[in-house]
Amino acid sequence: MSVLSVQSRVVAGFAGNSTAVFCLQRAGIDCWGLDTLQYSNHTGYAGFGGRIFDGEQLRTVYDGLKRYVGLQKCQAVLSGYLGRKETGDLVLDIVNDVRLANASAVYCCDPVLGDDEGLYVSPDIPDFMRNQAVPIADIIVPNRFELGFLSRKPVNDMDQIIDAARFLMGKGRTQICVVSGVFIPDGVFSVAVTRAEAYGVSTPLIDWTAEDTGGSGDMMTALFLAQWIKTKDVAGSLSQAVSSCYGVISQTARRRSQELCLIEAQQEIERPSRIFTANKI
After folding, report:
1. CATH number, residue 54
2. How confident is the model at residue 209 (pLDDT cuts 50, 70, 90)?
3. What is the pLDDT of residue 208?
């Protein structure tokens, strides 16, 4: 059982595939990382070196994977930061190939577009996400800004977030929408929305937010997907993923680290030290 993860990678630290591959493997799921770019470090530093890979290079690597390894054991495709729209076109081909090889496989799309400060992707990515990637995804994991942008709906409270999530579901095959890191007066709220139900879980506010480190969203997406693949339990997957993220970020905060302390806190992935239950909304 494997996940093919198509997203960015950093040499030092944790973001994109540097986070997702470790988290999935530590959760007991084999992960194949197809890197859309390689940077020296995440973009929260003063600068970085590296480049975005062109579509031809990525397609050559993927074609080799498909031919010599095969896709039959691939249980899911996960996509994150793409860099170029042509990489998005490759992701669509990958999803189609994997579904042909394994009818039960799912596509989990983290529609990386931006945050409350605005879009930070190339101009052709937003329309691609809205019109092509999101509609074919089984699971989407936008942040609150991305949910509002994609749905063109307000997302100022939980009712609006659930409404926007279900609006996107009505545009395609999406069955689950997970929105995490929604700040509330006394903490942080995460929600998993299905076509029929919604589950939410809140955690205390840690004095060291996702803005201070890279890869927190990538960690949440990977851990939710890992649990869902194993259990098909939306509420349980949300609870486990949030609890693990809380444990890792708590240790990161104690160390005042600019990078997620994934190595030091890796036991939190398998056995979170504090469990936060997801309740039906």
Report:
1. 3.40.1190.20
2. low
3. 66
